[in-house]
């Protein structure tokens, strides 16, 4: 695979870039590594990975749908099942994600769909309106669980804090704080920058915040 390759009319993505015993080896466009999908033309967390996460979570939800949507089971227990079996697949590896707002909203919409199916009357409409009787905030209050965007931000903050507390010779820490001049033009959105923006603080202020 060739990473960050932009497929254009002038430069098509090659079908092979290496041979073995005289036979061409396939140059794949999507490669699964440690449970995550990496696509040749997606430099950060791309649609291939997010679609994989959504499919894995949805499949697990419907595998346990008989219990998830069983109103005889306390909501607290069902939400614990949802978060441990389904949410864990939906946000697998989220600590290092670099997603935009639309991508996070898409994941959150998927997660809220699960909760709406678990709440009795979750798909009931308001009288004379197409809007649901329960808003997303109502569903989060009933289920007593945070939305995906909030949960992912907290996970990333904890992850970044642990890296920053490592010794300065740590490779992971050096990569996180790297400011290499050899990069693409334009403003760069890194994991560290994203965390600081979500916390609305400087790096020095962030180090004084106690993570849960």
Rg estimate, integer Å: 21 Å
Number of helical elements: 9
Compute the separation of the termini in Å: 39 Å
Mean pLDDT equals 86
Strand proportion: 5-15%
Number of domains: 3
What can be said about the biggest beta sheet? 2 strands, antiparallel
Classification by helices and strands? mainly alpha
Can you write the helix and strand succession as a string? EEEEHHHHHHHHH
What oligomeric state best describes the polypeptide chains here? single chain
Instruction: Give the overall silhouette.
Output: globular
Q: How are the strands of the biggest sheet laid out side by side? A: 1-2
Quantity of strands, as a count = 4
Low-confidence stretches: none
Percentage of residues in helical conformation: 40-55%
Summarize the structure.
Helices cover 47% and strands 7% of the residues.
């Amino acid at each position: 695979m060739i990473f960050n390759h932009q497929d254009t009319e002038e430069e098509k993505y090659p079908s092979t870039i290496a041979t073995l015993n005289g036979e061409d080896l396939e140059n794949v466009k999507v490669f699964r590594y440690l449970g995550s999908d990496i696509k040749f033309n997606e430099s950060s967390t791309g649609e291939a990975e997010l679609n994989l996460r959504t499919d894995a979570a949805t499949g697990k939800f419907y595998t346990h749908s008989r219990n998830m949507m069983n109103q005889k089971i306390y909501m607290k227990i069902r939400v614990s099942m949802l978060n441990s079996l389904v949410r864990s697949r939906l946000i697998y590896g989220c600590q290092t994600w670099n997603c935009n707002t639309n991508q996070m909203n898409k994941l959150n919409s998927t997660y809220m769909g699960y909760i709406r199916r678990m709440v009795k009357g979750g798909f009931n409409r308001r009288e004379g309106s197409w809007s649901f009787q329960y808003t997303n905030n109502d569903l989060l209050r009933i289920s007593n669980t945070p939305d995906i965007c909030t949960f992912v931000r907290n996970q990333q903050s904890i992850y970044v804090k642990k890296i920053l507390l490592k010794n300065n010779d740590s490779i992971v820490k050096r990569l996180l704080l790297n400011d290499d001049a050899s990069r693409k033009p334009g403003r760069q959105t890194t994991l560290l920058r994203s965390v600081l923006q979500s916390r609305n603080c400087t790096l020095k202020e962030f180090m004084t915040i106690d993570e849960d």
